[in-house]
Amino acid sequence: DTGVSQNPRHKITKRGQNVTFRCDPISEHNRLYWYRQTLGQGPEFLTYFQNEAQLEKSRLLSDRFSAERPKGSFSTLEIQRTEQGDSAMYLCASSWGSGDQQETQYFGPGTRLLVL
Amino acid sequence: GDSVTQMEGPVTLSEEAFLTINCTYTATGYPSLFWYVQYPGEGLQLLLKATKADDKGSNKGFEATYRKETTSFHLEKGSVQVSDSAVYFCALVSGAGSYQLTFGKGTKLSVIP
């Protein structure tokens, strides 16, 4: 399977703990995106990387959130001092694009986070 | 800012019925438009897309036409099957240096035999 993979698939944590999620994009894709989806809503954009550079961040991405994509391959999303409002499905997507080309984003299965 | 509005669900149809899910958008520039589908227990999958006005996207019997004059991208299928039961999301990418997808809230479709 050469699709986007995410780990872990589920995470339960206590309020105040830190959590880290990993995304492995489709291997030849240079762009990687993180989204958050809460129950009954569509996904909301969090941040975007082109290769290793983080080029766009949503105002939803508070200071407690940090994302990295070292070497332009896999990416991690860390949430520090989790709050109950962080409970959601965290989705990763990847795509291949150059210039202003609006290419298709392919999504992973998501990591479901529950903060108790 | 960019936004997508799609019809509220849930929608329940009998097998072989005609499906329409309405989607309208607000965007700067010339967006590309998408329909994604989320089957129970699975991730988001691209269903179809259209990148410019009057383009028609189609896949698996589903169709949607990019209507710039009405800022709409309604999803249609002539004869639904039980296997089409899923949540459908309309989305756009506005372009002009922004690559983020902006999604609607989703419409849950249930098809009964």
Helicity level of chain B: under 10%
Q: On the 0-100 scale, what is the average pLDDT of chain A?
A: 92
Radius of gyration of chain A: 14 Å
Please mark out the parts of chain A with pLDDT under 50 across 5 or more consecutive residues, or reply none: none
How many DSSP E strands of chain A? 11
Major beta-sheet overview of chain B: 6 strands, mixed
- How big a fraction of the residues of chain A is strand? over 45%
Kindly report the greatest chain-chain contact and the residue count on each side: A-B, 25 and 26 residues
The overall strand count of chain B is 12
The averaged pLDDT of chain B comes out at 93
Order of helices and strands of chain A: EEEEEEEEEEE
Distance between the termini of chain B: 41 Å
Oligomer: heterodimer
Rg on CA atoms of chain B, Å: 14 Å
- Kindly report how far apart the N and C termini of chain A lie: 33 Å
By DSSP (H or I, 4+ residues per run), the number of helices of chain A equals 0
Task: Categorize the overall geometry of chain B.
Answer: globular
The H-and-E topology of chain B, N to C, reads as EEEEEEEEEEEE
Percentage of residues in DSSP E strands of chain B? over 45%
Describe this structure as you would to a colleague.
- The complex is a heterodimer of chains A (116) and B (113).
- Chain A has 116 residues and is mainly β.
- In chain A, 0% of the residues lie in helices and 48% in strands.
- In chain A, the strands form two sheets. In chain A, strands 2, 4, 5, 6, 9, 10 and 11 form a seven-stranded mixed sheet that branches. In chain A, strands 1-3-8-7 form a four-stranded antiparallel sheet, with no helix packed on it.
- Chain A is globular.
- Chain A starts with a strand and ends with a strand.
- In chain B, 0% of the residues lie in helices and 55% in strands.
- Chain B contains no helices and twelve strands.
- In chain B, the strands form three sheets. In chain B, strands 2, 5, 6, 10, 11 and 12 form a six-stranded mixed sheet that branches. Chain B has a four-stranded antiparallel sheet with strand order 3-9-8-7, with no helix packed on it.
- In chain B, strand 10 (86-95) and strand 11 form a beta hairpin.
- Chain B is globular and about 45 Å long.
- Classes of the chains: A mainly beta (116), B mainly beta (113).
